[in-house]
Amino acid sequence: MEKKSINKSILGDSLRQSFAKLAPGIQVKNPVMLVVYIGAILTTALYVLSFAGIKDENGGYIIAIALILWFTVLFANFAEAIAEGRGRAQADTLRKARKDVKAKKLKSTNNMNDYNEVLSAQLKKGDIVIVWAGEQIPMDGEVIDGAASVDESAITGES
Description:
The protein is mainly α. Helices cover 53% and strands 8% of the residues. It folds into 2 domains: 8-98, no CATH class; 101-149, no CATH class.
């Protein structure tokens, strides 16, 4: 089983983004977390009022709730930023791999063993390629002969 890890640059960027995503304009895009965000703001304001002596509530209990709400918002932002970072890294890898994949471009459809190896970037619409089991598919296309079962986990994000 392949072990997936998150590199340090993605973690660092995600941590910074989790704080940057505290901006109200970004929080509005996620209604569920917006409610938690507003609750955190109001609870923090209530704590400040209790600390200043304006309200008579227990400040320790209020700050505990406020911290839980803030950590919930930050963790949600962090998880979202990690997912975005991994998605960007995977897309970059796929873009790079697309340029490096060799395709077996058929010279004629009559002979499956008569082909030229070309880079996938050199393929154009209408070219016919042959792909054997275990090989990478060089470009989008249609199966015109035979059958194919394709591992799409790199594109769909499944593990």
